[in-house]
Amino acid sequence: MPKTKHEVDNFHIISAEELPQPTQLKREMPLTGDALETVLGGHRGVKGILDGKDSRLVVVVGPCSIHDTAVAMDYARLLKPLADELKDTLLIVMRVYFEKPRTTVGWEGLIYDPHLDGSHRIEHGLRIGRQLMLDINALGLPIAVEALDLISPQYLQDLVSWTAVGARTTESPTHRKLASGISSAVGFKNNVDGSLSVAVNAIRAASAINTFISVTEEGKVAAFRTSGNPHCHVILRGGKEPNFETSFVAACEQELRKASIAENIMIDCSHGNSRKQYEKQLDVLQDVTAQIEAGNNSIVGVMLESNIHAGNQPIPDDLEEIQYGVSITDACIDWPTTEVALREMASRLRSVLPTRKRG
Ligand SMILES: O=C[C@H](O)[C@H](O)COP(=O)(O)O
Ligand SMILES: C=C(OP(=O)(O)O)C(=O)O
C-alpha cells in the first residue's frame, strides 16, 4: 500500500515550468502580410496538387533538423531563388523540422532543447522557432514540419503549409486525432519496419471526425472536436528495405484504392529509402522521375534531406566547434547537389506533368 498520496501522484515529475499561452506568442509575433500570403499560397498549392487541380509536384526539401536559426535563414535564402525558378513545375516547401523523434534518446530538436546542451529551454525554443518560421514565410518560402508534440502546434502550426506524421508516430491514435484537426495537408509515413497499412489506417482515422483533449490558444484544457482532414496522403520512406520502386508504388496504389483513399503518394528519398546513405537520395530521385516519365499518376511529391554542406556531425562538447551548415541529425546532401538535382528533375518533368491523368 502506498504510504503517501505523493507516491502515486506525479511521483516521477521533477518540476513543471509554466509556459506562456500560445496566444501571447502569437500576439508578440503575429502572422501578417507577406508571411500570411505565403502560408495561404502554400496551403492552396499543396491541396491543389493533392486534388489533381495543379499538375506540379510538391518538393519537401531542407535540413533533417534546424539547430541554428541563422544558418536556417542562410539555407532559406539559397532555396528561395531556386523555388522561384522552378515554380512552374515544382512547389518547393522548406523542411523546417524543430522536433526530432528519437529511436531511443538523443537531441530532440530546437523547440525542446534550443541550446543543444540538455537544458531544455522550451519557452526559448518556441520563441526562436516561431520567429524563424515567420522570417522564412516572409521570404516567400512555405514551410513543412513534423507534428510530433501534441501541444506545440498551438504555438506554431499557423505558420505551416504541409505537415508530416513520422514513421515512429503514424500508428499513434493521438497523432491521428491531431492530424484530423490540422489545417494543412498531412503526410503519414509508413512505419520504420516498412508497414504501409499503418499509414493507410492513419489516413482513414485522420480523415474522420475526432475528439481529443488538448489546450486552447489561451492555455485552457479543452475537448477539441474536429471535422476530419480531407488532405492526408501516404509517404513511402522505406523500412527494413527501400520501398520507392515501381512495384511498391503499385502495391501502395492498390492498398489506397481498396480503402477508397485518393491515390496520392509522396516518396521520401531519405531514411529507409536511402538506407541512410545520404548520396543515395539522388538515385531515389532519379528513379521517381523515371517513374513519372513512364506514366505514373499517383506520385505527388518527394522529400529530400539537404543542407548547406553534406553529411552530418555529432554535437561536439564544445559548441564553438560545431561545423557551419552541417546536420547534427541525419546526413544530408549539400546545397550545390540539391540545386542540380531539382533543376534536372524539373527539366525532365516540365512537359510531362501537365499530361498526367489525375483528379
Ligand atoms: O530523421 C531523423 C532521424 O532519422 C530520426 O529522428 C531518428 O533518429 P535516431 O534513430 O538517430 O534517434
Ligand atoms: C524523422 C524523420 O523521418 P522518419 O519519420 O521517416 O524517420 C524525418 O523526416 O525527419
The rounded distance between the terminal residues' Cα atoms is 62 Å
Number of distinct beta strands: 10
What is the count of structural domains? 1
Beta strand %? 5-15%
Percent range of helical residues: 25-40%
For the sheet with most strands, the description reads:
8 strands, parallel, barrel
For this structure, the CATH topology is TIM Barrel
CATH homolog superfamily: Aldolase class I
Task: Describe this entry's structure for a reader.
The protein has one domain (29-353): Alpha-Beta Barrel (TIM Barrel), CATH 3.20.20. It has helices spanning 22-28, 33-50, 69-85, 122-139, 153-156, 173-181, 197-206, 246-258, 281-293, 335-349, and strands at residues 57-62, 90-95, 143-146, 162-165, 185-189, 210-215, 221-226, 232-236, 265-268, 299-305. It is globular and about 70 Å long. Helix 6 (173-181) links the parallel strand 4 (162-165) and strand 5 (185-189). It has an eight-stranded parallel beta barrel with strand order 1-2-3-4-5-8-9-10, surrounded by seven helices. It has a two-stranded antiparallel sheet with strand order 6-7. It contains ten helices and ten strands. The protein is of the alpha/beta class and 359 residues long. Helix 6 (173-181) packs across helix 7. The structure holds erythose-4-phosphate and phosphoenolpyruvate. Erythose-4-phosphate binds at residues 64, 100-103, 106, 329-330.
